[in-house]
Amino acid sequence: MTTTLARTPLYNASVELNGRMVPFAGWEMAVQFTGINREHEAVRQAVGMFDISHMGKFILRGEHLIDALQSLVPSDFSRLQPGEAQYSVLLNAQGGILDDIIFYYQGIDPVTNLPQGVMIVNAATRSRDKAWISAHIEDQGIILEDLSKDKVLLALQGPQAEATLQPFVEDNLSSIKFFGHLNTTILGQPAFIARTGYTGEDGFEMMVDPNIGIQLWQNLATSGVIPCGLGARDTLRLEAAMALYGQDIDLNTTPLEAGLGWIIHWETKEKFIGRSVLEQQKTAGVTQKLVGLEMQGRYIARHGYPVLFKGEKVGEITSGTLSPTLGKAISMAYVPTRLSKIGQSLDVEIRGKTYPATVVKRPFYRSPHRPKK
Question: Which residues of the chain, if any, have pLDDT below 70?
């Protein structure tokens, strides 16, 4: 049996710009337009745009919204002021990562007079996330509205993102801090804009109705913005050492193993799902860690390739590519903690042969343009 792939409202507009469409997480998405390297360079040096409408988009509201969400994540959402956001993860009882998310707290909604927030989740895990969240909040009077198929999500990323987007937006974009967000208008119509992204650069993500999304995409293309696909999105996020769910993090990995200990707010979060397991890991130490690897030479270590130490397999590559910015082959892998120190020499098996690699500091590339929180 064949499965029908979903298409975003920007599908036709992407095809018109010569997007090469491929299956991805149940959707038909552009992997590239003019070439991954060109698109990657556009984001690093100027500006590029991405259709990310396949992502899950939830609106959550209710009188006790923050309290209801607190048990689901290791981060303290009570710290958030209206207009602020937090990157976090949904955890199961074993401390495994169900998904990584961004929660944007909007404060009191003027229409419903209830606290409200936006949660963006991964496309492949949207249904599972929705069921998991709903099961834990429905008895607390929280409403979850799934806008995943009703809204366009468009990302504009790069050092020129603000100047490029400003003519289309009513509010002053410079007022939005990194990981800040607001409700405003784009092309005169309601829009949600956040200063977040998945490239390691400055930029914005906009959630709008489909007709406005199509108009904005076309206007940006006409003004010379380079359309970018999943290929460049992957090389950009890997240079910034941002985890890809299903490869770098999953149900079998914990935040401590993945180097995400900074999102666990131990002192202010007494209870959350998976805390007891994470406490044990914190006390005893983790047995494996996600590390950055730099290959010696240009041999590319890709997902699934074995990582070796003294001829014995000690791990697998989770993500790997040839970095367009650095001109080096970079990757990430889980290895035993004893082999995770910066400078550690390892080997990667590529098509039956072994090639040397070195554990290096993450991220591999830190943009001088990315604002601080």
Answer: 1-2, 373
The set of long-range contacts for 17-23, using a CB threshold of 8 Å and a minimum separation of 24, is 17/221, 17/227, 19/227, 19/229, 20/229, 22/230
Pairing of strands 56-61, 84-91: unpaired
| Residue 2, pLDDT score | 60
The per-residue pLDDT for 138 is: 87
Element (H, E) at 134: helix 126-137
Under 8 Å between Cβ of 315 and 252: no
Q: SS3 letters for 260-311?
A: CHHHCCCCCCCCCCCHHHHHHHHHHCCCEEEEEEEECCCCCCCCCCEEEECC
pLDDT at 297: 86
With tokens 């792939």, the residue in question is 5
CA dist., res. 196 & res. 210, Å (int) = 21
Contact 25, 124 (CB under 8 A): yes
- The confidence score (pLDDT) of residue 372 equals 74
**Token pair for 75:** 């981060």
Kind of pairing, strands 143-146 and 56-61?
antiparallel
Torsion sign (Cα): 358, 363, 364, 368: negative
Tell whether pTM > 0.70: yes
Are 331 and 355 spatial neighbours (Cβ–Cβ below 8 Å)? no
**The two three-digit tokens of residue 143, written as one number:** 């409403």
Which residues, including other chains, have CB under 8 Å from residue 176's CB and lie 6 or more apart? Answer: 182, 193, 194, 195, 204
**Beta-ladder partners of 228:** 50
Beta bridge partners of 226: 48
Please provide the DSSP assignment of 71-128 as one string: TT-SS-GGGPPTTEEEEEEEE-TTS-EEEEEEEEEEEE-TTT-SEEEEEEE-STTHHH
The helix (H) or strand (E) run that includes residue 322 is: strand 312-322
Distance, in Å, from the CA atom of 40 to the CA atom of 48, rounded to the nearest integer, reads: 8
- CB–CB of 117/68 below 8 Å? no
